């Protein structure tokens, strides 16, 4: 079970992903920012909490 701190961190990361995807699609004058925004929660949870990623 995720702690309250973990949930808050993941929510912040999801919001940051939304902001960055909107900025990127705006800068490129192309893309689908709504698709990116809708996947932000899933992506932040998988990438920053579930997957074992060690660059």
From TrEMBL:
Question: Which InterPro entries is this protein grouped with?
Answer: THDP-binding, Transketolase-like, Transketolase_N
The record's section on Gene3D superfamilies has: 3.40.50.970
GO molecular-function annotation terms?
A: thiamine pyrophosphate binding; transketolase activity
Which UniProt key words apply to this protein? Thiamine pyrophosphate, Transferase
Segments forming domain Transketolase N-terminal: 11-55
Q: What is this protein called?
A: Transketolase N-terminal domain-containing protein
């Amino acid at each position: 079970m995720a702690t309250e701190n973990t949930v808050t961190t993941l929510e912040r990361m999801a919001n940051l992903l939304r902001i960055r995807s909107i900025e990127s699609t705006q800068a490129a004058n192309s893309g689908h920012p709504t698709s990116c925004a809708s996947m932000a929660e899933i992506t932040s949870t998988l990438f920053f909490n579930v997957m074992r990623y060690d660059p």
